[in-house]
Amino acid sequence: MLVDIARLLLDLVFSLFGALLLLRVWMQATQLPPRNPLSQGVFQFTNWMVLPLRRIVPGVGGIDWASLIAAWLCAVVYLVLITAVVGVSPVAVFPRGLLVALVLVAKWGANLVMWMTLLMAVLSWVNPRAAAMPILQHLLDPLLRPIRRVIPMVGGFDLSPLGLFLLMQILLIVLARLSQIFATL
């Protein structure tokens, strides 16, 4: 029972922090203005890990590589702690755990996209003028735009968020299978 509780808490903390690191990458890739409250909050929570890495790993091509590497390192630490909690030697994680950590980062990213898409869809029905809507639209528009070309509006309803949500679910299934394959190597 204590092992299950520890796993839950580790999963919660590392998933949220990893998602914040990926959100930081996403915000910078889409050039979200840094002076909004979401950006400020994400920077405050993640600066302690990203700023030292940024001295070593510069951003190239508009991608915040320091934040991406921080998310991957976060996933590696998570895997080491999970194996230790279960009672397996953390050394058993290496080297295949490094690949599993990449898959874990991709899962965190897919979950982040799903939750933000769901939040945007709910807010568009409940309160389309909410302060978070412009931020969500700014972040999700690059992902929704190609889907809108394929899925037309139906009766005035934009079904592209549903399409994006479905694609992320499919991606999560593929990533779960990849994680299993890498774990057995």
From TrEMBL:
<protein>
    <submittedName>
        <fullName>Membrane protein</fullName>
    </submittedName>
</protein>
<dbReference type="GO" id="GO:0016020">
    <property type="term" value="C:membrane"/>
</dbReference>
<keyword id="KW-1133">Transmembrane helix</keyword>
<dbReference type="InterPro" id="IPR003425">
    <property type="entry name" value="CCB3/YggT"/>
</dbReference>
<keyword id="KW-0812">Transmembrane</keyword>
<feature type="transmembrane region" description="Helical">
    <location>
        <begin position="98"/>
        <end position="126"/>
    </location>
</feature>
<dbReference type="Pfam" id="PF02325">
    <property type="entry name" value="CCB3_YggT"/>
</dbReference>
<keyword id="KW-0472">Membrane</keyword>
<feature type="transmembrane region" description="Helical">
    <location>
        <begin position="65"/>
        <end position="86"/>
    </location>
</feature>
<feature type="transmembrane region" description="Helical">
    <location>
        <begin position="159"/>
        <end position="178"/>
    </location>
</feature>
